[in-house]
Structure formats: C-alpha cells, structure tokens
Amino acid sequence: MALVLVTRDEGIATVTLNRPEAMNALSRALRADLAAAMRELAGDEAVRAIVLTGAGERAFTAGLDLKELGADTTNLGAANADGADENPVKAIELCPQPVIGAINGVAITGGFEVALACDILIASTNARFADTHARVGILPGWGLSQKLSRIIGIGRAKELSLTGNFLDAQAACDWGLVNRVVAPEALLPAAHAIARDIAGIDPAMIRPYKRLIDDGYGLSLGEALAFEHRTTSAANRQVSAADVEARRVAVMQRGRERAG
After folding, report:
1. Residues facing residue 24 across a β-bridge
2. Beta pairing class for 12-17 and 4-9
3. Is it the case that residue 115 has pLDDT exceeding 90?
4. 82: which of 21, 64, 182, 237 is 20 to 30 A away, CA to CA?
5. C-alpha to C-alpha distance for 18 and 54, rounded to whole angstroms
6. CA torsion, points 57, 58, 63, 69, in degrees to nearest 10?
C-alpha cells in the first residue's frame, strides 16, 4: 500500500497521507515518501496548486510515529532534521506552488507543524489541533514554536503549547489559524475550489507573489515594505500596457461570469 497518494487533475495535485490505520502518523518511510512527492510536484511546471490532506476522517496526521521513536531513540533526530527526507515541513515550504491544507481530522504535534507549513488551511468540522511536544518530552524543531505565535498571538500559542490541550475547528477559525470550517463531505470540494481559482492565474504571477509574501513575513514592517518596493519595482517595469489591458478584460469577464 502506498503511504502517499498523488493525483493530478487540470493543474491541481492532491497529496494524501495514507496510513489511516495509524492516524497517518509520520513514520520514517512516510516522511521520506511525502518529501519525495512534494519535491516531484515542486518541479512539475504543469502543477499550479497542491492540496494536502489525510486519509480517513480521524486524522490529518498525528505527527511523528511515537511507536517508532520509542523503539529506537536514534529516530529522535527527525525532530530537528534539516534534510527534507526527515523534515517534510521543509519540502512543503520549498514548493513554489501554493499548498492548501485540507485538515480532515486531528493535526497533532508534528502533524500540527505539517499543517502550519501549508499556505492556506481549510478545516473539516472533525479537525482538531494540538501541540503535545511538552507532554511527550520533545521540543519542536519544525517551526511550530515560532510560527504559531505569529499566527494566533503569543498568549494563545502559549496556552496551546504549554497545556497540550486540543483546539477545535471552529475555535481555530475564530483564532485565525484556519481560513474556514466546512462539513467533512465539503472539505475536498472547498479545497479544490480554491486550488482551481489559483490555477486560473498565470503561474508566472502566483509563484513570485507567494515568494514575496513569504520572504517579507519574517521581516519588520519597515524592512518588509522596503523589500517589497525593491522587488516589485524591478518586476513591474517589465509589464507592458498590452499585458495590463488583456488581464483587465479577463478580470472583468470573470466578474461577470461569477455574478451571473
């Protein structure tokens, strides 16, 4: 049985973590397969957007496979690994295409970190998030301790990380962690709808725009504004009036179609 399933449809790739019997826990083999799948998709010019989800309704992913870690302590290095084979978060973050996380069930600890690597999160009503690093005695090494506070605020992040308590889907939405919450049967359709909207834009715009947002996010506001000015001034000088007019017409047409 394949641990990671990949399907492609009209510029959209769907990646499914496929260990439902183990709550899609990130074994060494699954981490390697996920990293390989994301690297392959990253290099595929035909893929314009990626949807990442888990098999079944119980779990997006329960994080690092604790049974595997408990059997061999040398496996603990995965929690701080820099190589993409051991750190699937890095492989997701390096994708030039937007990655939409369709969170179908629990996203726990390392699984929470995988979710945070996505660009956009849509949650099923079955979704729940938990950071149990402190409870299992492993400090996070895939970015959670720094990303979470920047998304939901430092007080809320400390509450989650220092208690290990679960956050349900609606609270995650209220706190700004996920973009929206939908019924389980509507999760993939909603994620694919966003992916189709992204795929409908020239990837020559989507990819640098994603990079512009990501590269500026870690800077102070002043530094980020200066970075944007430097980056976009050079790019915008290459845009012709004919390009602008053609895209204006396309935007107006799309608006009429959606209004109708």
Report:
1. none
2. antiparallel
3. yes
4. 21
5. 6
6. -130
Q: Residue 234: is its pLDDT beyond 90?
A: no
Higher-pLDDT residue of 46, 240: 46
In angstroms, the CA 12 to CA 53 distance is: 13
Instruction: Between 67 and 108, name the one with better pLDDT.
Output: 108
In this prediction, residue 135 carries a pLDDT of 92
Structural contact between residues 124 and 57, judged by C-beta atoms closer than 8 angstroms? yes
User: How many whole angstroms separate alpha carbon 257 and alpha carbon 260?
Assistant: 5
SS3 state of residue 130:
strand
Q: What is the predicted pLDDT for the residue at 71?
A: 58
Lowest-confidence segment of 37-41, 103-107, 120-124, 246-250 by average pLDDT: 246-250
Tokens of 228: 């944007």
List of domains in the chain: 4-199 (3.90.226.10), 219-259 (no CATH)
Residue with tokens 């996070």: 140
**CA terminus-to-terminus distance, the chain:** 45
Q: Encoding tokens for residue 208?
A: 């640098």
Structure tokens at 111: 């699984």
**Confidence tier at 51 by pLDDT (50, 70, 90):** very high
Paired tokens of 1: 């049985």
Q: For the residues of 198-249, what is the DSSP string, one character each?
A: HHTS-HHHHHHHHHHHHHHHTS-HHHHHHHHHHHHHHHHTT--HHHHHHHHH
- Average the pLDDT over each of 105-114, 130-139, 171-180 and give the range with the smallest value: 130-139
C-alpha dihedral over 51, 53, 55, 58, to 10 degrees?
-150
